[in-house]
Amino acid sequence: MTKCRECGKILPQEQRIDICLDCSRKKIQKRFRDDPELKDVFKKTIEELRKPENVKKMAEDTYRIVNAINEMRDGR
Description:
Distance between the termini: 35 Å
Strand content: under 5%
């Protein structure tokens, strides 16, 4: 049983990190408040990733990676 390192809340067993979603969200919000430039860059990056041509490229890259992993597994 793992507890959140920030608030002590008990985390689900399948969760591999040691901070809960609420505390993680608060930390990110604080960083964005402290550094508005970081928030702007993050927002622009997300907008760029949502463009159709980038979504298609990410899907193709993911497909290639999964296939490569499966080939390595089958080759054992």
